[in-house]
Specification:
Number of domains: 4
Protein name: NACHT domain-containing protein
Low-confidence stretches: none
Pfam families: NPHP3_N, WD40, WHD_GPIID
Distance between the termini: 56 Å
Mean pLDDT: 87
Largest sheet: 5 strands, parallel
Helix content: 40-55%
Keywords: Repeat, WD repeat
Structural class: alpha+beta
CATH class of the largest domain: Alpha Beta
Strand content: 15-25%
Number of helices: 29
Organism: Zopfia rhizophila CBS 207.26
């Protein structure tokens, strides 16, 4: 259970971060330990949340590393400390769900009895508990239960770099605000950049303390000076500087650091690679300020003999949707063959990309989020001379090439170490890059979306191999969405009827057989083919792949069934369904007491909402698609949910019998409910206040609906009447 929960060990992340910065210096962070705001958070029971905020490179992460050390050394044996370091450049540790996983991992590793809170769900769901669409809902509930456990003593929870939580940040912020108000035994510290949206959400928290690094410039300046002295001492020893060189480096760093730790670290990294005798000549080339330093790094790249190659590498790593491995990079970027076939040489080229990139293991990351931001702002014209759309097209085009070259039937039948190593990223994201290159806006790009184009050829020859690869990558739901996006792009073309027909058939093929292929990749060549219609284009193109040992094949018919998908997951009768008004999601309610939200394209269950204690009979989306209402027999209630986070926002009570139907007004401000108590109630959808109770029916009211101008309401009853 603990092994499946672990996505990273935050203790190892902390060591890595400290090592990258040249070690953690107590003298550079001890100022915060005596700061009045920190002391208030530490000693005042009512001050439960400390928010440390500051601009990029100001040392927020190292401050929190120091605070972790201080708390570890000073807290009692029964106290708990859990922490997590978000990094936008690392796909493992940049989502709200993985933050909770990391925090839970440390808490349970320290107090093993807490694992009972996970066991209740894990024994039923297994590893899927941490991986499926409901992972956030399940983990947030588990985390809440642990924080409320009577056996839990004083607990410190620390989350660094909220601004680098790029997936579901709003959920994480709302969770922190909610949980920081629950117990005085649990103290929270978070850090982030000075982002208004983060400030707006954290403002809702009571009992909070705010510490701005910009308002403590003198303390930060002193800390940076200490950091500089330490790094120069390390450099002088490693590079054998004489006194003159050492003093010159110390003076330049002190004069130009602008109280920015990251600037110092990047300059020192450059000096590590500078010959000792050339240090003084190179020193003045390092300008003050992060942006100026990035400008210099960019200028060095432009003046080097590998300028074009470095720019191509930077462009690719900047636009990909997750960090890519060195092998994936060779597939997505045009790299000379002699370098592409030698990973050690490729590592050397990455090292020539200024200090923008770093390699951990075999994966390429940005050294800091601010480095990536710089490429999209100040260096945009250098890195994307033809715009990001062209960069996306290049990645799309090369993805199609590498998949066409490497994908085959039964990928793992040959003794390759990893036959998907070079194409794994391409298999999952090629359509995303096609969409982002805006293919219908360019005559050059439109070629791929026509009859006989590159995509049609790929579908005809490699479609089943691609589906097998998606299954091996555990990414079948991404494949369903990819085909939906491809169909949407093709529908805009009136000049490619053959291509459009092929895509429609390919989409139906994956939608019908997604479960079988997901469970067993090679079923794409067996059950998926023989249970497809006789006139299916995909079946006809891959006729030779059908199993020869099946002599009597089922009679399926000529055409696909009108039923696109069958969504399975409820354990009892399903009573009601509703599409969100943006048509992206579908909600269903059941006698199993649950509300489920599904992705309308892929059929994937996004969330399971639990909270009702009896049958759920009706469901409705608000017209802005942000909220969901459900009506139940339990205590005659209506619940309003946040459609994104799954949080129950309101429980509306007032009916004296079961609630049969709910409906939002078209302006999303009101909610109507109909009940077996013969009444209709109108509620304020935001506050939950009952605005009106409408009486007049002499029997159970079954359904209710608003007019499109939200001015009128209709209700139907068992007494054979409709009332407006």
């Amino acid at each position: 259970c603990l092994a499946d929960l672990r996505v990273t060990d935050p203790r190892d992340d902390k060591k890595r971060i400290e090592k990258t910065m040249g070690g953690l210096l107590k003298d550079s962070y001890k100022w915060i330990l005596d700061h009045a705001d920190f002391q208030r958070w530490r000693n005042d029971e009512q001050s439960r949340l400390l928010w440390i905020k500051g601009d990029p490179g100001k040392g927020k992460t190292m401050l929190l590393c120091g605070i972790v050390n201080e708390l570890n050394n000073s807290m009692t044996k029964t106290d708990q400390l859990s922490y997590f370091f978000c990094q936008a450049t690392d796909s493992r540790i940049r989502s709200a769900t993985t933050v909770l996983q990391g925090l839970l991992y440390l808490l349970i590793d320290q107090q093993r009895s807490l694992i009972s809170h996970i066991r209740k769900k894990y024994d039923h769901a297994g590893k899927a508990l941490f991986e499926d669409a409901n992972a956030w809902v399940a983990l947030s509930e588990i985390f809440t239960n642990i924080l409320q456990d009577s056996n839990l003593n004083t607990t410190y929870v620390i989350i660094d770099a909220l601004d680098e939580c790029v997936v579901d940040l709003s959920k994480l912020l709302d969770f922190i605000v909610q949980e920081s108000c629950v117990s005085s035994r649990v103290k929270w510290i978070v850090s982030s950049r000075n982002w208004p949206d983060i400030e707006e959400r954290l403002e809702r928290a009571g009992h909070k303390v705010r510490l701005s690094l910009e308002l403590n410039a003198e303390s930060v300046s002193t800390a940076v000076s200490i950091f500089i002295q330490n790094r120069v001492r390390q450099l002088a020893k490693r590079k054998d500087y004489d006194d003159k060189t050492r003093d010159a480096v110390l003076g330049h760093l002190s004069l130009h650091a602008n109280d920015t730790f990251l600037w110092v670290a990047l300059v020192c990294q450059n000096l590590e690679d500078t010959l000792r005798w050339d240090t003084l000549a190179k020193l003045n080339a390092f300008p003050p300020g992060l942006d100026s330093l990035y400008e210099r790094m960019m200028q060095q790249i432009c003046n080097s003999g590998y300028a074009d190659l470095c720019k191509r590498i930077l462009a690719s790593t900047a636009i990909v949707y997750r960090p890519i491995t060195l092998e994936e990079l060779t597939s997505l970027t045009e790299i000379p063959e002699g370098i592409a076939n030698n990973l050690q040489s490729l590592r050397g080229i990455i090292g020539l990309c200024g200090s923008f990139l770093t390699i951990r293991g075999d994966t390429v990351y940005f050294v800091h989020q601010s480095a990536k931001d710089f490429l999209f702002t100040n260096a945009f014209n250098e890195i994307f001379p033809s715009g990001t759309e062209e960069a996306h097209y290049i990645v799309f085009s090369r993805s199609l090439q590498v998949m066409s070259k490497t994908l085959r039937r039964d990928m793992y039948s040959l003794p390759d170490s990893d036959p998907l190593a070079a194409s794994r990223y391409s298999c999952i994201y090629w359509v995303n890059h096609l969409c982002d290159c805006n293919p219908n806006s360019s005559a050059h790009h439109r070629i791929d979306l026509r009859d006989g184009g590159a995509i049609e050829n790929f579908i005809r020859k490699k479609y089943l191999h691609w589906l097998e690869a998606l299954s091996l990558c555990r990414s079948m739901s991404e494949g369903v969405l990819a085909m939906a996006k491809l169909n949407a792009l093709a529908q805009r073309r009136a000049d490619s009827p053959i291509f459009v027909e092929l895509l429609q058939d390919a989409r139906l093929f994956i939608m019908y057989h997604v479960q079988a292929i997901q469970n067993s990749p090679l079923q794409v060549y067996v059950s998926a083919l023989i249970f497809s219609p006789d006139r299916s284009l995909i079946r006809s193109y891959f006729k030779e792949e059908e199993p020869k040992w099946i002599s009597i094949k089922p009679a399926i018919g000529d055409q696909w069934s009108a039923c696109l998908q069958t969504l399975e997951g409820h354990s009892d009768c399903v009573h009601s369904v509703a599409f969100s008004h943006d048509s992206t999601r579908l909600a269903s309610v059941s006698s199993d007491k649950r509300v489920k939200i599904w992705d309308a394209s892929s059929g994937e269950c996004l969330q399971t909402l639990e909270g009702h204690s009896d049958w759920v009979r009706s469901v409705a989306f608000s017209h802005d698609s942000t909220r969901l209402a459900s009506a139940s027999y339990d205590e005659t209630t209506v619940k309003i949910w946040d459609a994104s986070s799954g949080e129950c926002l309101r429980t509306l009570k007032g009916h004296s019998n079961s609630v049969r139907s709910v409906a939002f007004s078209h302006d999303s401000t009101r909610l109507a409910s109909a009940s077996s108590d013969k009444t209709v109630k109108i509620w304020d959808a935001s506050s939950g206040e009952c605005l009106q109770t409408l009486k007049g029916h002499s029997d159970c009211v079954r359904l209710v609906a608003f007019s499109h101008d939200s001015a009128q309401l209709a209700s139907v009853s068992d007494n054979k009447t409709v009332k407006i």
